[in-house]
């Protein structure tokens, strides 16, 4: 009885209120946006630019003088505005986490250590009330990632609009996520409320478990029709063909090196480091091995008391300068991802990269890492018209008012639960 | 069998001593002896200042009868000639649990359930951790094995108490005699003992250091009330005992430098000067420690050298750890230099022998031998008020002394005998042969052998050589008897066995060859080769060059990498040509100069000049007030006292951690003032500490005591919704209950306040029992009297409404609602009540009660007339509060200046500090930030952050600090490497970081995910 009651209570708030607005309808007629400053997402800016798209795809982008067929098109003058590619949020729990303290709303962590077969794809909820708030801050694509265990599962990439996961998904099962056993382990001291970090004694044991799992998976992938099906191993086979990424969560320099070497030894061709606190120490190694890094929340404290107070803020630029491909993420967060654009701002403020270079950390680079760069990530002819129009520089709070958003050419409703409540209470108080 | 032997030995001991317990019956004939001994021709170090050459010590019946030269030795005295030997008073340790029962700590963790009442039987006090009735003398047993270990290293007397609880009762002064508790006990109720550690108490309260402080303070007040008539109202054995122990020497257990200041504060309130156990790190805050006037009990457990061979692994070791390894041995010398009285203790050492190693190290680091001796003999005797019988060798004092081979602090010194209450304990036989030297060894016809004896006198090392061939012998020395075995030919089995005795300086005897043939042998000291014994020792083992005082790095304030070598000072500063955000009617003014003098804003205008001022060019830069964080938990040792539903009595000011690196990091984000709030574990939390982030200053200098605030909380945290099944017993568990908590407490506070005022105003206080002072109700009465102000953690509109109506009906004000994520729903009511709102810019979705939180909250409230601040509750976000304020422009369209006020002037108003903080106005505190860009921009960071005209963060100096940290680390790493190569014990790399505390932190582990 208690359980049933609980489930009922948990459902209530989502049952009784206004639902998310309907997903955008597919683009019906050509659009031409003119006069705005267009940030292409690959480091290039076009002042007083023009962008045209039809059937969801970009047909032209360039200065406003660019010749395009305007017949039957909606032409919108956006002088003074800015156009950016839709922001891509990697490594998130968007769509699979709703209210952190309510277990019934959490779908990102399975039990068990080796779960390559579990997929965020099927749990991704297009009815999350969080997702529309992210769109309103420019986040138009999200990678939704299973958490926990050693091999957490398989991620997928979504547009942040859609009726269900099947039509929201941009790329299914783009990679398998592995938590690399850390070289150093942290433990809590009750005596003085502090943490102690020291060598992880169980590391070798864990690595050997991973080695046998990956070796078995590789061997399994070589058989056409196995006598006995193993859905775990089956889920890993694309790691060995290069069709899927292996995302490895690793922060310490030694872990990064070991993790990359492990992947190579196991025959995994595409490996991505996630977290990468100490990636700067091994930047030449990462460059040499062509391994990109998805950094965790930039808005976090340095891990050690003697670290440069701005160490975390400076890291993306350092890696970029050293020739390592960098994407920014907000760790395994969901609602906070709406602040992701500001992390690019921070990267430019504290590091030796331009604002446009920092923008690449949210657009071109994540698209390339996840293998969706043929479709999205930059504003180029032939790619999806997935973009936002803002009042200013979206990487700064003062310019992040998103006025329009298009996902594959479809004009997205920017309304969300929070803006609705805002309107409701403005009405209550008679505020303008 | 082993047990039997032991019993027999101890029985034997009983019979040798005079003055055994007269009341005890004897098994067999009486064997009382006079115990009259004289020691002659010794170098007697009677006390640190007095050394008697060729002196005599005469003792009888366990006491010193006479000491000096030309002493007449009465007949019937056992005389020992101690030519060449030394006599010292034996060591005293004041912090021991010798002979005490083992303390079993209650298992921690919030999953263990809650225990709201004491489970101690008998008519004792309400809290299990307050045990003034505990009496070490009643618990004391002689522990033969431990006593042997103590005696071996020279201790004679210990002050023992069970290390358990906040009030630990009385200590017992005992000797290390091994017979019976009756003999060993010198003084019952010799001392009183206190701490802030609840020990084995399984009771939920207190669960924090500040809760412990409050409980101890309350106990003093309760005991006072009890004495003044409360005893007629209730029986309370604990309070009765407490009143008896108050006058004893009071020892306070503690483990760090800031804890000394904390303990001393408590003592000051009650006119008690505690003797405080230190952490050995007081050299890092020596000025403040000195100012307490406290005497200290100082441990000698110096950190082991860090293992830094792998540079990446060693990166986790902080500079502070490296420096404390380097500097800890200088602590005793620093105490002497500062004139702080102290006694040394072996407490905390794994091996007692390390005491001597470390004491010698402390001497190398500048501690004089006289002061060292004082700190282990006379100083502890004085602190225990037992210098009438202990601590030096003087007529009438106890015959507790050591006979040593040389100067007590020499590395080669041997303690021969440790006499306790006139009874001899042999440590290293006084008459043991010192065989060290080189011998011609003749075994039968073989006279080509040589024997070398090196090492320590009590641990000789032997070597037999034939030409260059080494024949490692086995040698046993038993009194005068010597046994030697060796194998003459390594390739052939066969051992020569020799038995012999010492004859003068030579050895001779008989033995058996491998074939069974008997043989004569002798070893003759080769006086031509043998040099003095100490030379041989040194030749055998080179002593590594120790680090010394002179090549240490500088102290840092605070003692962390980014600390200051010199404390920054208040300056006269002229900022020229900046864009100034005044937060006053002038708004933002460009090309303006601001002059700072004597910590205040002296002038604002164009083309200002001031002689002697440090000029800072503000061209292209923005000058603003320092950011004020209304809701912070940095710089605290603990946040929540969650043991009870109201903890109004606890004070965050008791747990300010001035050494927290987050102070510096937040200066680097433009923050200058923070309200350190209690957490939200209970409906009525604790008293806030508002601090200025004066990096390097001690806790008392950070604190603004006149800002009197208290934390309240509503909703899921106080009803323990997300704490699992263990937390289902404490009232309240619903929002219905929360309301009643407030009613109940405020009604009681009103009655209490009335009773207090009536008593204070009454003319005749004689024969009237005063009302019991209650620290919890004091704080609530202050709220009713408008002297203390509420900051209430709150989320949903129903509970906000509830507290407003409780407050209105009981006639008090809610000053600030913090978090207040649904404040936008009741902004009109808040404005009417006059309550402010201090909120997050955009947090939501982390729990049920924030599912309707919106980032437009601040704007909606502000437009309804609520004073709105944006706060952090998070050490990371706090350094970006300028950006958080900017979000109110994105969400809700606030103007730039209104947005900026939300992290400066508005929180100043909420803290009632806007008369001195929050705007750039002549006469206000010069708490200023010069930004390199528009302060609401993501691209802005401070060039300078100053507080009261003192620059605490300087972007350029910060870069220099980073270089200094790197260099200093490199220097000490090289030192540590060389220590390791010379055989020093090392410790694997370990990083330590303090936990980032937030609202929900009770036990620490769980709350990182939930605000």
**How far from one another are the termini of chain A?**
48 Å
Number of helices of chain B: 26
Q: How does the major sheet of chain A shape up? A: 8 strands, mixed
**Mean pLDDT of chain A, rounded to whole units?**
94
Give the CATH H-level superfamily of the domain at 91-103 and 120-411 in chain B.
Answer: Metal-dependent hydrolases
Query: Residue share in helices of chain B?
Result: 25-40%
Terminal residue distance of chain B: 63 Å
| Total number of distinct structural domains of chain A | 2
Tally of individual helices of chain A? 12
Low-confidence stretches of chain B: 1-18, 530-544, 1001-1011
Give the C-level CATH assignment of the largest domain in chain A: Alpha Beta
The quaternary state of the protein chains shown equals heterodimer
Q: How many β-strand runs of chain B? A: 45
Could you characterize the architecture of this molecule?
The complex is a heterodimer of chains A (432) and B (1011). Chain A folds into 2 domains: 17-86 and 377-432, Urease, subunit C, domain 1, CATH 2.30.40; 100-373, Metal-dependent hydrolases (TIM Barrel). The N and C termini of chain A lie far apart (48 Å). Residues 1-17 of chain A have low confidence and may be disordered. With 432 residues, chain A is an alpha/beta fold. In chain A, helix 8 (311-321) packs across helix 9 (340-350). Chain A has helices at 2-15, 131-135, 165-168, 203-221, 231-235, 253-265, 283-288, 311-321, 340-350, 355-360, 364-370, 417-429, and strands at residues 31-39, 45-54, 57-63, 74-77, 82-85, 87-92, 139-144, 151-159, 169-179, 184-189, 194-199, 245-250, 271-275, 293-295, 326-328, 387-390, 402-407, 410-411. Chain B is an alpha/beta fold. Among the domains of chain B are: 2-20 and 31-84, Roll (Urease, subunit C, domain 1), CATH 2.30.40.10; 91-103 and 120-411, Alpha-Beta Barrel (TIM Barrel); 437-540, Lipocalin (Beta Barrel). Helix content of chain B is 26%, strand content 25%. Chain B has 26 helices and 45 strands. In chain B, the strands form 7 sheets. Chain B has a 9-stranded antiparallel β-sheet. In chain B, strand 20 and strand 21 form a beta hairpin. Chain B is globular, with a radius of gyration of 35 Å. Chains A and B meet through strand 11, helix 9 and helix 12 of A and helix 16, helix 23, helix 26 and strand 45 of B. Chain A: It comes from Persicitalea jodogahamensis.
């Amino acid at each position: 009885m208690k359980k049933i009651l609980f489930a009922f209570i948990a459902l209530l708030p989502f049952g009784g209120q206004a639902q998310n607005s309907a997903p955008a309808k597919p683009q019906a007629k050509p659009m031409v946006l003119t006069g705005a400053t267009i940030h292409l997402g690959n480091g290039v800016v076009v002042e007083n630019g023009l962008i045209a798209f039809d059937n969801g795809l970009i047909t032209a982008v360039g200065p406003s003088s660019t010749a395009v067929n305007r017949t039957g098109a909606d032409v919108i003058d956006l002088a003074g505005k800015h156009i950016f590619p839709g922001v891509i949020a990697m490594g998130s729990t968007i769509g699979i986490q709703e209210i952190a303290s309510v277990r019934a709303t959490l779908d990102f962590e399975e039990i068990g250590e080796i779960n390559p077969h579990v997929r965020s794809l099927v749990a991704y909820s297009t009815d999350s009330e969080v997702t529309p708030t992210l769109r309103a801050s420019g986040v138009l694509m999200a990678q939704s990632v299973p958490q926990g265990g050693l091999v957490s599962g398989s991620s997928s990439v979504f547009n942040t609009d859609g009726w269900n996961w099947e039509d929201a998904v941009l790329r299914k099962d783009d990679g398998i996520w592995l938590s690399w056993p850390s070289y150093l382990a942290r433990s809590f001291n009750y005596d003085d409320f502090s943490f102690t970090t020291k060598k992880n004694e169980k590391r070798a044991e864990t690595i050997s478990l991973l080695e046998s799992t990956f070796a078995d998976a590789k061997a399994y992938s070589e058989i056409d029709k196995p006598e006995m099906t193993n859905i775990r191993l089956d889920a890993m086979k694309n790691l060995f063909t290069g069709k899927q990424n292996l995302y490895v969560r690793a922060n310490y320099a030694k872990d990064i090196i070991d993790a990359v070497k492990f992947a190579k030894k196991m025959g995994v061709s595409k490996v991505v480091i996630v977290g990468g606190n100490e990636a700067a120490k091994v930047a030449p190694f990462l460059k040499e091995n062509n391994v990109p890094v998805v950094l965790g929340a930039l808005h976090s404290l340095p891990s050690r008391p003697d670290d440069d107070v701005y160490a975390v803020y400076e890291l993306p630029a350092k890696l970029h300068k050293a020739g390592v491909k960098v994407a920014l993420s907000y760790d395994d967060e969901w609602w906070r991802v709406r602040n992701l654009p500001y992390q690019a701002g921070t990267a430019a403020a504290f590091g030796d990269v331009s604002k446009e270079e920092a923008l690449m950390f949210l657009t071109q680079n994540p698209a390339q890492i996840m293998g969706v760069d043929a479709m999205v990530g930059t504003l180029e002819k032939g790619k999806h018209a997935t973009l936002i129009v803002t009042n200013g520089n979206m990487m700064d709070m003062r310019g992040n008012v998103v006025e329009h958003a298009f996902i594959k050419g479809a004009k997205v409703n920017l309304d969300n639960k929070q803006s609705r409540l805002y309107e409701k209470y403005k009405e209550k108080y008679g505020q303008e | 069998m082993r047990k039997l032997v032991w019993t027999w030995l101890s029985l034997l001991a009983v019979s040798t001593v005079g003055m055994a317990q007269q009341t005890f019956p004897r098994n067999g004939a009486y064997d009382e002896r006079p115990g009259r001994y004289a020691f002659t021709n010794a170098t007697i170090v009677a006390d640190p200042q007095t050394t008697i050459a060729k002196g005599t010590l005469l003792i009888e019946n366990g006491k010193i009868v006479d000491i000096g030269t030309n002493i007449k030795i009465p007949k019937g005295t056992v005389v020992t000639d101690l030519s060449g030997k030394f006599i010292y008073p034996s060591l005293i340790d004041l912090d021991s649990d010798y002979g005490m029962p083992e303390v079993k700590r209650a298992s921690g963790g919030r999953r263990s359930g809650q225990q709201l009442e004491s489970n101690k039987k008998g008519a004792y006090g309400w809290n299990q951790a307050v045990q003034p009735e505990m009496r070490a003398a009643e618990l004391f047993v002689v522990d033969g094995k431990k006593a042997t270990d103590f005696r071996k290293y020279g201790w004679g007397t210990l002050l023992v108490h069970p290390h358990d609880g906040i009030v630990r009762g009385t200590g017992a002064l005992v000797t290390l005699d091994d017979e019976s508790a009756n003999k060993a006990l010198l003084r019952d109720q010799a001392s009183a003992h206190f701490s802030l550690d609840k020990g084995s108490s399984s009771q939920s309260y207190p669960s924090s250091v500040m809760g412990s402080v409050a409980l101890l303070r309350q106990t003093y007040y309760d005991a006072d009330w009890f004495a003044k008539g409360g005893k007629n109202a209730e029986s309370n054995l604990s309070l009765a005992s407490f009143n008896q122990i108050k006058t004893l020497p009071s020892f306070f257990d503690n483990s760090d430098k800031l804890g000394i200041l904390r303990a001393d504060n408590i003592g000051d309130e009650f006119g008690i000067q505690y003797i405080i156990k230190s952490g050995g790190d007081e050299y890092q805050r020596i000025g403040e420690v000195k100012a307490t006037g406290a005497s200290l009990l100082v441990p000698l457990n110096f950190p082991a050298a860090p293992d830094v061979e792998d540079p990446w692994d060693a990166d986790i070791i902080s500079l502070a750890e490296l420096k404390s390894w380097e500097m800890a041995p200088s602590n005793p010398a620093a105490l002497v230099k500062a004139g702080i009285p102290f006694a040394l203790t072996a407490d905390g050492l794994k091996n007692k022998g390390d005491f001597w190693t470390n004491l010698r190290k402390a001497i190398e680091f500048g501690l004089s031998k006289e002061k060292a001796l004082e700190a282990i003999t006379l100083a502890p005797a004085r602190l225990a008020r037992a210098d009438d019988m202990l601590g030096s060798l003087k007529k009438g004092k106890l015959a507790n002394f050591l006979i040593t081979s040389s100067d007590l602090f020499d590395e080669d010194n041997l303690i021969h005998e440790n006499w306790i209450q006139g009874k001899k304990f042999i440590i290293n036989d006084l008459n043991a042969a010192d065989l060290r030297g080189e011998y011609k060894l003749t075994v039968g016809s073989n006279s080509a052998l040589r024997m070398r004896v090196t090492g320590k006198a009590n641990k000789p090392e032997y070597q037999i050589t034939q030409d260059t061939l080494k024949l490692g012998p086995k040698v046993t020395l038993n009194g005068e008897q010597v046994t030697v075995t060796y194998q003459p030919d390594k390739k052939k089995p066969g051992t020569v066995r020799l038995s012999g005795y010492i004859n003068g300086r030579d050895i001779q005897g008989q033995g058996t060859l491998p074939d069974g043939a008997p043989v004569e042998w002798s070893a003759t000291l080769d006086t031509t080769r043998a040099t003095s014994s100490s030379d041989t020792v040194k030749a055998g083992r080179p002593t590594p060059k120790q680090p010394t005082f002179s090549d240490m790095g500088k102290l840092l304030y605070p003692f962390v990498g980014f600390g200051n070598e010199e404390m920054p000072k208040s300056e006269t500063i002229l900022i020229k040509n900046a864009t100034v955000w005044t937060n006053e009617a002038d708004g933002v003014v460009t090309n303006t100069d601001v002059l700072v003098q004597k910590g205040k804003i002296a002038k604002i205008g164009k083309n200002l000049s001031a002689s002697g001022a440090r000029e800072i060019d503000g061209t292209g830069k923005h000058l603003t007030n320092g950011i004020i964080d209304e809701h912070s938990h940095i710089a605290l040792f603990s946040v929540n006292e969650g043991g009870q539903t109201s903890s109004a009595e606890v004070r965050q000011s008791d747990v300010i951690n001035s050494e927290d690196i987050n102070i510096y990091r937040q200066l680097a984000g433009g923050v200058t003032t923070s309200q350190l709030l209690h957490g939200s574990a209970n409906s009525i939390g604790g008293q806030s500490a508002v601090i200025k982030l004066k990096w390097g200053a001690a806790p008392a200098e950070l604190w603004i005591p006149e800002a009197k605030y208290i934390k309240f909380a509503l909703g899921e945290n106080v009803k323990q919704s997300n704490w699992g099944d263990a937390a289902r017993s404490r009232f309240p568990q619903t929002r219905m209950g929360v309301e009643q908590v407030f009613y109940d407490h405020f009604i009681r506070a009103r009655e209490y306040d009335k009773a207090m005022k009536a008593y204070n105003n009454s003319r005749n206080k004689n024969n009237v029992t005063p009302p019991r002072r209650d620290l919890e109700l004091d704080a609530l009465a202050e709220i009713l009297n408008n002297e203390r102000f509420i900051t209430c953690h709150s989320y949903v509109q129903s509970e906000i409404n509830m507290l407003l109506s409780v407050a209105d009906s009981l006639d008090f004000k809610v000053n600030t609602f913090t978090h207040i994520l649904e404040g936008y729903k009741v902004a009109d009511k808040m404005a009417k009540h006059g309550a402010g709102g201090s909120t997050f810019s955009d947090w939501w979705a982390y729990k049920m009660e924030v599912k309707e939180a919106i980032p437009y909250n601040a704007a909606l409230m502000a437009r309804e007339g609520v004073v709105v601040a944006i706060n952090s509750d998070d050490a990371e976000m706090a350094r970006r509060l300028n950006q958080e304020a900017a979000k109110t422009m994105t969400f809700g369209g606030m103007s730039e200046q209104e947005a900026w006020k939300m992290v400066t002037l508005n929180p100043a108003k909420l803290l009632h500090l806007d008369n001195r903080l929050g705007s750039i106005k002549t006469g206000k505190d010069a708490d200023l930030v010069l930004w390199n860009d528009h302060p609401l921009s993501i691209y802005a960071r401070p060039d300078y952050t100053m507080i009261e005209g003192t620059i605490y963060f300087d972007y350029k100096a910060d870069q220099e600090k980073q270089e200094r940290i790197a260099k200093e680390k490199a220097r000490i790493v090289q030192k540590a490497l060389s220590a390791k190569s010379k055989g020093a014990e090392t410790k694997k790399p370990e990083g330590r970081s303090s936990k980032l505390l937030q609202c929900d932190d009770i036990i620490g582990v769980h709350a990182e995910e939930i605000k």
